[in-house]
Amino acid sequence: MIRKLYLSPFGYIISGVLHIIAWFHKPFMSYGYFNRPTRTFQKYTRVSSSAKLIHKRGIDLGNHVWIGHYCLLDGTGSVSIGEGVQISSHTAIYSHSSQDAIRMLGKDFIKVPAIQRPGYKLKPVKIGAYTFVGTSSVILPGTTIGKGCLIGAGSLLRGNIPDYAIAVGNPVEIIGDTRERDKNRFSDIMDKEKYYDPEAI
User: Fold this and answer.
1) Range of the domain at 32
2) How confident is the model at residue 114, as a pLDDT?
3) Which distant-in-sequence residues (6+ apart) come within 8 Å of 52 by Cβ?
4) Residue 13 lies in a domain
5) Which of 33, 95, 138, 150 is the most buried (most CB within 10 A)?
């Protein structure tokens, strides 16, 4: 019945209505973010309407941060993202894990408060200023990424990534240094004082 209706001339109207609904339902960037841990308003931070921020009390976003479409940020064990960081779409950042607790407790898992569950991990994630995280990356609990890093698309990160690292892959591997990469572009910068880290020049 619905198929017949859609294939009739009335289908043009149905299609038009669906396109209008889809237009209003598009992900969009929300400007400004109230940072609960610091109780400050980050005027230039942008977070997609489709991004999911879990346990916002544990999510500390600096100013000029960009969180792309369909990202997941889990603040259960705390997530700290420095100024100017860009997180590309479909990226997930986890600060807790129940990978062992679920087996230890079985059906009683839900009855035990999270902090008391054996094998339940709460580990903070930190991302340094002006780091770029490529699309579809996964950042696991306890990871620290330094400032000025470039993380390739689809990377799986666990542990420590030093400042200025270019890191890619699953598992992630450091393949270069952003300072070397940026030197080739310094002639394009009209005012070198705008560069995020003058000491690196």
Assistant:
1) 28-200
2) 81
3) 71, 72, 73
4) no
5) 95
pTM for the whole thing? 0.87
> Sign of the CA dihedral 116, 120, 126, 131?
negative
Condensed to tens digits (0 to 9), the pLDDT of residues 15-66 reads 788 778 777 778 889 999 999 999 999 999 999 999 999 999 999 999 999 9
Q: CA end-to-end span of the chain, whole Å?
A: 67
Closest CA to 44 of 64, 28, 69: 64
Q: How many domains does the chain have?
A: 1
Write out pLDDT tens, residues 104-132.
889 988 898 888 888 888 999 999 999 99
In a domain, 181, yes or no: yes
Given a cut of 90, is residue 143 above it in pLDDT?
A: yes
Q: Cα separation of 83 and 131, whole Å?
A: 9
Cα dihedral 191, 193, 195, 200 in deg (nearest 10): 130
Q: Is residue 4 part of a domain?
A: no
Mean pLDDT of the chain: 91
CATH number for the domain that contains residue 106: 2.160.10.10
Report which DSSP code applies to 29.
E
Asked if the structure places residue 144 within a domain, the reply is yes
Give the residue ranges of DSSP H helices in 47-148: 101-105
Helix (H) or strand (E) run with residue 28 in it:
none
User: Backbone phi, then psi, for 198, in 5-degree steps?
Assistant: -55, -30
